[in-house]
Write a structure and sequence with these properties.
Helix content is about 25%, strand content about 25%. The chain is an alpha/beta fold. The radius of gyration is 15 Å and the shape is globular.
Length: about 180
């Protein structure tokens, strides 16, 4: 839970820098990879804001998708939408979700996942629901996966359970990083 406290204690300016860093590093990366569709998330609480990234991608002609929680409240599907302004609040929840048909995971070229922490092997620790841990294995190997995490939550070692999944890259407020 120290990672949660570290993330939640970040100053507003640090969170804004992190949001800008996502846009500055991931949007050009998506263009270099000729990504057609990038899966993002809408922040909850102190998670990094992805709106700048979404707007940069949309301005460059790249489509975006957001997760929608199934009725089991643990499984997510991704749905393409016109951007963050097209999201609607899930009833009795803090979640903002898209409307529309569910995408085949094979359609996603790049996925940015929220992370509470990552370890040196780039295994991400989420909020505990396992939604992304269930979704990440459904993606093709060609889909680039990036965890958005606070720099203070990049740990040299962390607890890893069998269900925890790794990512290809990590984006903190300090930049974009690969495996150590």
């Amino acid at each position: 839970w120290r990672a949660l406290a570290r993330r939640n204690q970040r100053a507003a300016t640090t969170r804004r820098v992190h949001s800008q860093t996502l846009a500055d590093f991931i949007a050009p990366l998506a263009l270099v990879r000729v990504a057609r569709l990038v899966a993002l998330f809408h922040p909850i609480g102190a998670e990094v804001d992805t709106r700048l990234l979404a707007n940069a991608l949309l301005a460059a002609g790249v489509s975006v998708a957001y997760p929608r929680l199934r009725s089991d409240n643990v499984t997510v599907d991704f749905v393409a939408c016109a951007g963050p302004s097209a999201l609607v609040q899930r009833p009795r929840s803090r979640l903002m979700e898209p409307a529309g048909p569910v995408l085949d995971p094979a359609e996603i070229d790049l996925l940015v996942a929220p992370a509470l922490a990552v370890n040196g092997a780039l295994v991400r620790l989420g909020q505990g629901g396992g939604s992304y841990d269930r979704y990440l294995p459904t993606l093709p190997e060609t889909t680039l996966t990036i965890a958005a995490v606070a720099a203070a939550c990049c740990l040299p070692w962390g607890p890893v359970d069998r269900h925890d999944r790794g990512v290809d890259l990590v984006c903190t407020e300090a930049g974009l990083f690969g495996p150590a």
